[in-house]
Design brief:
It holds the Pfam family LIM. It is found in: Nucleus. Helix content is 7%, strand content 20%. A two-stranded antiparallel ribbon has the order 1-2. A two-stranded antiparallel ribbon has the order 3-4. With 61 residues, it is mainly β.
Length: 61
Amino acid sequence: MLIACAGCDKPILDKFLLNVLDRTWHADCVRCFDCHAPLTDKCFSREGKLFCRTDFFSDSD
């Protein structure tokens, strides 16, 4: 059974995968919801969406 990526919904065939917010991702699909920057070290979440530190703490809401 293939596991689908939470970011792109395509099967994960890579040797490595990430588990973020109890969902499985391709490493390249873990990106900020607002600015689309890759999230390599830390990420923040709100309402099931991933954010970089800058966008998570911005006052744009």
